[in-house]
Design goal:
The chain is of the alpha/beta class. The protein folds into two domains: about 5-165, no CATH class; about 175-325, Rossmann fold. The chain has helices at about 15-30, 65-75, 80, 130-150, 175-185, 210-220, 240-245, 250-260, 280, 315-325, and strands at about 5-10, 35-40, 55, 85-90, 100, 105-110, 125, 190-195, 225, 240, 265, 285-290, 305-310.
Length: about 325
């Protein structure tokens, strides 16, 4: 039996972030005789999955490519990958799923109804903890069937939603740099992290946070503000841009930094997906404010932290939420 497993995802960083814990679940239930690879289209160092994984990035752009096409491509380059057991970790690859474009040109990935048909009433796949559980149930059942067909008694158990809450990465590559910045800013009364970069998949309108809260930041020098992107720079002693302190890619460092923040403003795109680790969602003292389209479901709605999910992107609402949460600290 071939003991090489290749995980695959050809979508965005947020998709990679949300699939991580399922990958870890599989690896942690197999022994050291297995080899693990991950084929994805982003920077190989962008997202930490597991210390046992080797990331493979083919020399071609394969965003949204089906797994079989890349399996054949990679197999022609490396026989180890060709003969491996491949696992598609994109939530939109659930069995039977199909891309669907509605009359208004909106896009969704749908599952067929009981009769095998697709329509506007079909179930829409969302990248949520519930759908992650369904995905890994399918993938692990297929893996267990592979073991049985090869006369192996190995059985990977199926994870619950709680099992798939992502474990916070306590040791990113540039941990010392983050620790130094956290210590430097320990004298502030409160710390806010704002994932302010443009979203990639219409999670929210791409407004400019800095222009909205510029005066508020100036009026509250006792509050530390971290921004994940520099779009309309605020020059102030209480403002810190992640890219100025940690070399890119720095998603792992952002994840680590989040543990030391009191309030997190985000959408459900890119670095905002990192806010759903166990150290955030299980901390009742943290506030997670998710500004996101009503068409996108909250990734994890069963949290101990305070979560505000708002579809109001107005300047007044953002300022009201910011002031409300900071005043509670």
């Amino acid at each position: 039996m071939n003991k090489t497993i290749v995980f695959y995802n050809s979508h965005q960083n947020g998709d990679l972030i949300h699939c991580r814990q399922g990958v870890r679940w599989i690896i942690d239930h197999l022994d050291d005789t297995f080899k693990f690879f991950f084929v994805h289209n982003k920077n190989p160092e962008a997202v930490f999955f597991h210390e046992k994984i080797t990331v493979v990035k083919p020399q071609t752009d394969f965003h949204a490519f089906p797994m079989q096409a890349l399996k054949e491509y990679c197999g022609n380059q490396d026989a180890t990958l060709r003969d491996a057991f491949w696992i598609n970790t994109w939530v939109g690859s659930l069995d039977g799923a199909r891309d669907f474009i509605f009359a208004d040109n909106s896009y969704a990935v749908l599952l067929p109804d009981a009769n095998g048909f697709f329509s506007q009433n079909s179930e829409k796949i969302q990248d949520t903890l519930s759908f992650q559980r369904r995905l890994y149930a399918q993938r692990i059942n297929a893996l267990n069937e592979y073991f049985a067909e090869n006369f192996s008694t190995r059985v990977v158990p199926l994870p619950t939603e709680e099992d798939l809450v992502c474990t916070w990465n306590s040791n990113p590559k540039n941990k010392a740099l983050v620790d130094s910045l956290v210590e430097k800013n320990s004298g502030f009364d409160s710390t806010v992290l704002i994932c302010n970069g443009d979203t990639m998949s219409s999670q929210r309108e791409n407004f400019i946070y800095e222009d909205i809260i510029r005066q508020y930041v100036s009026d509250n020098p006792n509050i530390c503000f971290y921004f994940t992107s520099k779009i309309s720079e605020i020059n102030s002693d209480n403002v810190f841009y992640i890219d100025d302190y940690f070399p890119i890619p720095n998603l792992n460092e952002i994840e680590y930094l989040m543990k030391f923040c009191d309030v997190i403003f985000t959408s459900q795109s890119g670095p905002g997906c990192l806010a759903f680790t166990d150290e955030i969602v299980n901390d009742e003292n943290k506030v997670l404010c998710v500004l996101c389209s009503s068409a996108v479901e909250l990734f994890n709605s069963n949290t101990k932290c305070k979560v505000i999910y708002s579809q109001d992107f107005s300047e007044s609402n953002i300022l009201t939420l910011l002031d409300k949460f900071i005043s509670q600290k």
